[in-house]
Amino acid sequence: EEAPAPTLYDRLGKTEGIAKIVDGLIANVGAETATPNSLMLRSHKPMLDAVNGVNGQPPTDPTRLQRLRNHFVDQVGEATGGPLTYKGKSMLVAHTGMAITHQEFSIWRQQLEKSLNDNKVAEADKAALYAIIDKMHDDVVNH
Ligand code: HEM
């Protein structure tokens, strides 16, 4: 009996590996929002304001980014064949009202790419993950 072939979830390092990739993505997006002429600040400002507070006011929703992070780990874990279950909103519902542009989607994808490279994900596994991500493009963009 041969062992079953590892799933993409296994090849990304299971939940621990996926969490590192997601945390890297979030760190990269956060860094981009702090740059002059950021392309990601517009879409992320409501969440950042809720987490950080505005004008010295206390945060209105301090765990909002943490919830997004945990949901995203579950979503990738489920979509790559792992034992996780995504319990968040559909991609269409989650991104409706944000008017995310194709350009913003591309910049987001570059932040993911950086994290995949930093985590030394193999090219074939990056391609397999992009196939999953790019299928969501139309649900995320222009709503
Ligand atoms: C295929 C690509 C993407 C995936 C898989 C994804 C995934 C997610 C997930 C899982 C959530 C949380 C939904 C929930 O908790 O119910 C979310 C929310 C969010 N996403 Fe995305 N996302 C993608 C693209 C983008 C892009 C391109 C942007 C902006 C440039 C973006 C900005 C946001 C923001 C601001 C939130 C809301 C956080 C909040 O208000 O609490 N996402 N996304």
TrEMBL record:
Heme binds at residues 71, 95. It comes from the Bacteria. Pfam families: Bac_globin. InterPro entries: Globin-like_sf, Globin/Proto, Hemoglobin_trunc. The keyword Cell inner membrane does not apply. CDD domains: TrHb1_N. The keyword Cytoplasm does not apply. One of its GO terms (molecular function) is heme binding. Keywords: Heme, Iron, Metal-binding, Signal, Transport. This is Group 1 truncated hemoglobin. The lineage of its organism: Bacteria, Pseudomonadati, Bacteroidota, Cytophagia, Cytophagales.
